[in-house]
Design a protein that fits this description.
mainly alpha; 22 helices; 3 domains; 75% helix; Growth Hormone, Chain: A
Length: 571
């Protein structure tokens, strides 16, 4: 208990911490739970996601949740400042639970079932947007300055660690063979959290008597973000003879148009008396530096989960004789050392940053993360498990050291009446960084595969008895097919070779080898590693940039009405 607090106040802040951490954990788990569970979901819906014209469905089932969350975070943060943070946080729990229930009872099969699932995932994402945008603001209101680092640190462990837990939970539920459990598991937790939030949480900041909603700003922000997210999503799909869609006029129009609309939004917000997006907050350097560092951190780590799943589920585990049916669970378990790093370093970093400031710990965290990425880049395709786990642990420690102090520094720097929108802006930078990271990392991997995979495919297939014309036809397919097959833990050669009749013409033992567990992983392994090492080096560079910005943020800074308290010199 801190000086001047009443027992009731102490009790409430821990209730707020536990409830918001549950909400953020549940929302974060659902950002990654589908990465592992996609094969069993598509099998349950009777859809081949690698068939022509189905790749878009694969992307939207996977990314629809994140897109919906990202584009709505700032809006929801502003709404919470106007109408009550707890009120909209509670609504988020309810909407998320309803979306989970809808996803678990999708009634159609085939493409129609995928569309229904995508719609339910978008509803889940809307609920998650309310949870993400308000949790940090509620905690900042509930905790005194000297304890916010610890509270926000624990909350951030849930936010980042939930992405790792999602891989494990997805693997466990996928192992049951019943895809509906992937969504149904959220319902009892969501119902409990919703009831608990409505009963226990309370507003601690007075709302405006006559709230004003910036409708033009809302329209511009939503239009700009949706355009950019759509452009990034479709940019990694093949277009005509190109391996990716960056030459697609519609993709370019979406990206350029989205940037122009967002620029117009910034100009509008700087001239609006009560803006949706508080551009003026960027005059506070610790707030700006913290968000820039968070964006770079998200860019560095955002695509990590996808890369690890491709590496483990599509290449490493099948090479070691693990059946494709068993790879989802094992792939999730292999990532647990990263979660262990979060759990050990997060609370310690948050507690120490309350005493000594965010600068040292956030900078150190990004340096440790950069070292982890550098070490991962040295691993061979067939790596030592203990080295892999050690390097993942180092990355987890680094991310935890950075996230807790950085979040506390951002939230401490803003006026109380803007904490909701500031939390939404912070979450937007995090989620946008993750989406940008996925587009960037997938582009790097696909570019690397396009340079070396066709020759490897043609050579490997002809060496094992496939006619040259058939081998060249398969080798000319976009490398996206092979990348998504690895992500799903599929061997696509059976579906690619079956229509040609080649499998029936060759000896059964040879056909079984081509369509078995080891041939395809070995085939794509070397081309994949070429792009993988480059992604780790790019992530290393971004982590170093985040470390530099964290150091330049200056000393401890806490907003106070009428004056700003700086407990250390800025530089």
């Amino acid at each position: 208990m801190t000086k001047g607090e009443t027992p009731g106040r102490v009790s409430y802040k821990w209730i707020a911490l536990s409830n918001t951490t549950l909400g953020v954990l549940m929302a974060s788990i659902n950002q990654s739970i589908l990465i592992i569970a996609l094969p069993v979901i598509f099998n349950g819906l009777h859809v081949n996601p690698l068939a022509p014209g189905q790749t878009g469905l694969l992307l939207w089932v996977l990314l629809g949740y994140n897109v919906a969350t990202t584009v709505l975070l700032v809006l929801f943060g502003r709404l919470s400042d106007l109408f009550g943070r707890v009120r909209l946080y509670n609504l988020g729990f309810l909407v998320f639970t309803g979306g989970s229930l809808l996803a678990s009872v999708v009634w159609s099969q085939g493409t129609a079932g995928c569309v229904e699932l995508i719609a339910a995932r978008v509803i889940q994402g809307i609920g998650a947007g309310f949870l993400f945008s308000n949790s940090a603001a509620i905690l900042t209101d509930a905790f005194p300055t000297e304890q916010r680092g610890l509270a926000l640190g624990l909350n951030q462990i849930a936010a980042i660690g939930g992405n790792v837990i999602g891989l494990v939970v997805g693997g466990l539920l996928a192992g049951t063979g019943h895809w509906r459990w992937v969504f149904l598991v959220n319902v009892p937790i969501g119902v409990m959290g919703t009831v608990w939030a409505y009963i226990a949480l309370r507003e601690t900041v007075r709302r405006k008597a006559h709230p004003h909603l910036d409708i033009p700003g809302n329209v511009l922000l939503l239009a700009g973000l949706v355009a950019v997210m759509l452009g990034l999503t479709y940019g990694i799909l093949p277009y005509r003879s190109y391996t990716m869609g960056w030459h697609n006029p519609w993709v370019l129009a979406l990206l350029v148009g989205g940037v122009v609309v967002l620029a117009a939004f910034v100009v509008l917000e700087s001239r609006t008396p009560e803006p949706l997006f508080q551009v003026r907050l960027f005059r506070i350097w610790p707030f700006t530096a913290g968000n820039l560092a968070a964006l770079l951190s998200s860019l560095a780590r955002g695509g990590l989960q996808f890369i690890l799943v491709i590496w483990l589920q599509g290449i490493y585990l099948p090479m070691h004789g693990v059946r494709y049916e068993d790879t989802p669970l094992l792939a999730g378990l292999y990532t647990l050392p990263q979660m262990l790093g979060f759990l050990l370093a997060g609370p310690v970093s948050g507690y120490l940053s309350d005493r000594f400031g965010a600068r040292t710990f956030s900078t150190l965290g990004m340096l440790v993360t950069a070292a982890g990425f550098g070490l991962m880049a040295t691993l061979p395709m067939d790596f030592s498990k203990w080295l892999f786990w050690t390097y993942l642990f180092i990355i987890g420690v680094g991310m935890a050291l950075f996230s807790s102090p950085n979040t506390a520094a951002i939230m401490n720097a803003v006026p109380p009446e803007h904490r909701g929108v500031a939390s939404g802006m912070r979450s937007t930078f995090n989620n946008a960084g993750t989406m940008l990271s996925m587009g960037l990392f997938f582009s790097i991997l696909i570019t690397g595969l396009a340079q070396t995979l066709p020759a490897a495919l043609a050579s490997g297939l002809t060496t094992h008895g496939v006619p040259v014309t058939v081998a060249k036809g398969i080798a000319s397919l976009p490398p996206t097919v092979s990348l998504f097959a690895a992500l799903l833990g599929y061997n696509p050669l059976k579906s690619l070779l079956a229509p040609t009749g080649v499998l029936h013409e060759m000896p059964p033992q040879q056909a079984a080898y081509l369509t078995g567990q080891t041939f395809f992983p070995h085939l794509i392994g070397d081309p994949f590693m070429h792009g993988l090492r480059l992604t780790f080096l790019v992530a290393l560079g971004m982590a170093l940039m985040a470390a530099l910005i964290s150091w330049l943020r200056g000393g401890r800074y806490v907003y106070q009405r009428g004056r700003q308290a700086n407990e250390a010199q800025a530089h």
